[in-house]
Amino acid sequence: MTLTPNEILALPKVVLHDHLDGGLRPSTLIELAAEIGHELPSTDPDELARIFSDNADAGDLVRYLEAFAHTTAVMQSADNLRRIAREAVVDLAADGVIYAELRYAPEQHVAGGLTLQQVVEAVQDGIEDGVSEALEAGHAIRAAAILDAMRHLDRSLEIAQLALDNRGRCCVAFDIAGPELGFPPAHHREAFQLLRENHMPVTIHAGEADGAASVGEALGLGSARRIGHGVRIHEDIDGFGTDEVSYGVIAQHALDQQIPLECCPTSNVQTGAAPSIADHPMHELRDLGFAVTINTDNRLVSGVTMSSEFGVLVEAGWTKEDLFEATLAAAWGAFLPYDERADLAESVIEGYGIDL
Questions:
Q1: What's its EC (predicted)?
Q2: Whole-angstrom Cα distance, residue 80 to residue 267?
Q3: What is this structure's pTM?
């Protein structure tokens, strides 16, 4: 039975991969840009959103990334960071998200004079404000932050220490983001060693702009507990898409350990990691038993919500049970203590009305 948009909206959702600088409200971006004199492609919210999504659909990475120059320009003060984080949580909650992990790179928000610690605290204040505001509107949500280090720069050890200093209240994990091809986890060996020694959870962007070997390095040297995107892990599976498959070491490890793959359907197509929604590798990976999860990546830039991502998967043949399994995998993959993950999983089960 095909789910209606209202039925999809009502389903509880868990998002593990949502970039703060990729999910601003268009109206907020326009208002904040005007305050600092930053010129945007349009000052009409609908048109601006359309320009960004058209650029994302163009198959041109330069055009896709253009939006981030605009969003980060307005994210250089504590007040703006607090507001943007608050609105992100409120918007996700209104979309049926009951748990969200928002990721951002603190080093991208210090041009206005903030310290890295001040950036982290401003975002956390916004997250907490958003949770309270959402609850007042009747939407219960829990939200957390993941700190990104930019993989083409050299501050990963500093950001790793920042994550450790703020574990618990302001940070639940560490990530490296930015250009994947040519900037492997090995460039950040010291950071990952520090994190391993201190038992800090790690997720790494891999298997999006580079192949299965990138996923392998993320799981090995990086000791990643989840993989950001990860869709090109199928390149380590001989016979992928047939009835006779043979797993390479990397794919077997991810399957055996049930490493959550933070798939982002629309974004993966836009960046070329998947040929189309209909032919997205996540469908077959799901059928093979991999821990596939559904995520937004960049809500403004890609023009998506969690509900719209659920919707395109339903159009591609996903059932309510398929969405449930992916959401349950996300709940168990959350960077939370075991008992809190169990509670989150129970909320997902109750929300879907699935009799296990």
A1: 3.5.4.4
A2: 26
A3: 0.96
